[in-house]
Amino acid sequence: MSTTLSLVRSVDSIRASDAATAGGKGANLGELVAAGFAVPDGFVLTTQAFALAVGTARIDPSEPEDAADRLRSHDVPRAIATAALEAYRALGGGAVAVRSSATAEDLPDASFAGQQDTYLGVTGDEALLDAIRRCWASLWSERAVAYRRDQHIDDAGLGLAVVVQRMVEARAAGVLFTADPITGRRGRAVIDAAPGLGNTVVAGSIDPDHYTADPKSGEILERRVRGDKAVLTDVQVRELAAAGTRIERQFGSPQDIEFAFDGDGRLWIVQSRPITTLFPLPERPAGDESAPRVYFCASVAQGYFEPITPMGQEPFRRIGEALAAAFARGRRGGGPIRSPVVEAGGRLFVDVTPALRDPLGREVMMRLTAVGEARSSVVLRRLALDPRFALRTGSRLGSVRRIVPLLARSRIPLYALRLLLSPDKVRVRYIREIERATRIDPPATATSSARLDAVEELMRSGPPFLFPRLLGLVVAGSLTYLVAGRLLRGRATEAELQTLTRGLPHNPTTEMDLALWALATDIRSDPASRSALLGRSAPELAAAYRGSTLPPRLQDGLAAFLTRYGFRSVGEIDLGVARWSEDPSHLLGAIANYLQLEEETHAPDQQFERGAREAEQMVATLLGRVRGPRRWMLRFLLGRVRALMGSRELPKYTLIRRLFTPIREILQPVGQELAASGRLASPDDIYFLTQAEARRAIDGADLRETVAMRRATHARELARRHLPRILLSDGTDAEIALIDVPKGALRGSPASPGSVTATARVILSPHDARLEPGEILVAPSTDPGWTPLFLTAGGLVMEMGGMMSHGAVVAREYGIPAVVGVAGATERIATGDKVTVDGSAGVVSGDRL
Question: Is the pLDDT of residue 108 over 70?
Fold first, then answer.
């Protein structure tokens, strides 16, 4: 009897804590029964039964194909067969549903939906045992193994239970989502239903009826009926919506629910699992859960799609707190001061609701995103029509009266004015002042606590000093460009204006790229260096560099480059990302790429010089179209455009150089000490803690388990393919919900004039990426770590960005036709496709589009 009890359990005896025995599906069904939902009677053949079967069949999990074949062909062990058939007869025999229930499925972050097998309408002893064998074998099906690899789930310790339930004689069945799986909006019942069994809906073999309802009001928002008569009545749709809300409350997260209505109209719940594809929501302050909010993804705007480590989020939180405090000065009314910077899915978002609802704030935000993140600008304009985000009472003049004192106190206008009057002299002065103000270098003997104090001081004092001066640079350059464009309205095209920004001086990213090109040019003539670069992998070369065993010219040249630029990296806005000085693999791969660039016309230094000449010629051309005092003013403005616009890259460059990388360097010995004392597993784990947690670790707390959980979450978020650039507080991905995807040619924003037809190469990460000379780079976005690839690119297509985004600026520097803000570019375009990039019209075309 004890053996039988360990092999079989009734569904109504199982709870969430029994997932290791009953698998995810079995545990969820037990919870539904306990909560009072109508669930068909049944039993679970436990994971102990599976382990016994695996042992009897002598399964080797390292050989999945052999494991599946063995389980399908091997007899079910006698003890298991006896227990299963006894439980089957206790149900009354007849038709049953036999479902796989793995221990690694129906989890909050990995549903495994459809990865293991289900068999419906199974009747008789032999058919039941055969279905059980097939369910066991499905744990090692090709699709299940591939899914586990993709989700980074270890096969070790996996188990599989089998749920056997009485079949519901369904008149109608289907799937209910308690959140919209497409737009992400929570609080929506989305239902697909078909006559008879629901497996046709799940399998996608028929076109089901589709319903959307608001569970709170009971309103049916959408109804698409495929046949002559609706599968569900309005009453049943409302019943489902209400049941879904209760089930979601039971499990604490949005659910994917399979249901059936029997011939008497009774609702049965046959399965419930978490919807794992929804993007997480930012945490809302207590008491502020109901007010709708609009969040703008700052991570995506920075060209960084990967999750940011907890320590890497700290500087941004401090910056947000400082901005919130600045804007709160002199305000009317009380209430807590809240930072506009929030986190969701490891990405940083800014709450732009107040700006969207302010007359002046809305206009400024629209203008800024139009040039910096064009796709977001379109979404924001649509959101401005939503009554939930209507303008607050008040006028633009009132907003100006509130903002002007803040700007005056920030001194940004003063810093911008000084730059306009004397660009070169003032730029040098600001950089010198910033370096003096951010010079914090704890001695090697400093304690970990003292190092955290130094980080705290740098985060506290750095941003208030840096931002007014750096924003002054951006404001001065952007203002001259905009005013010059106004003076030339009707006299110059957008492409001609963009030509002014080619070959700009004082752009630190361009200077870095050209320095790397100069290094490649220098070592090209050295046979030993060339042979090493073309014959060894980038990681091997990086290891040789750290061991000082590269050919001398390459070793010395790379060391000189890293002395100047080693503080940078791909994904440099995250403190948790290694810098080039720590791991130069990416740079060595880029140099190897440059060595294949033989055509003189593609030489980046020559392209840059050509761009500068074309820009100066355009200045003369545009001046020739204006007469009188306007000509004098235009000459001044165009001169300042050339002198100041290159500094658009300086703010981020300076933040990384004077704030982010120094903080990382200060923290490294802290991580080493905590790892040596056993409170962290490795030194780099320090970046998976907050500052407060790091202090707790210094005081003796063991945070290895905390870090392990965060690293697992980080790894899952790395695999997330789509990020919302604008997220609403109800979970809606505003771009998906509001913007139609164009058919035919892909449209975006013109970013760098010219047209090119060439082979596309889709690159999702610049790490170990290879771009052949003249190929069109298709990327989700770029940051300065990507730009070495620009030197060999024939054109650029980006999913995000606007005319003044980083990728657009650098593309114009090198004269590469570019279109940015192209929705779905990395999905619609495949490597090897022949495409045409029209950087003047903002269109990408090709035979496959």
Answer: no
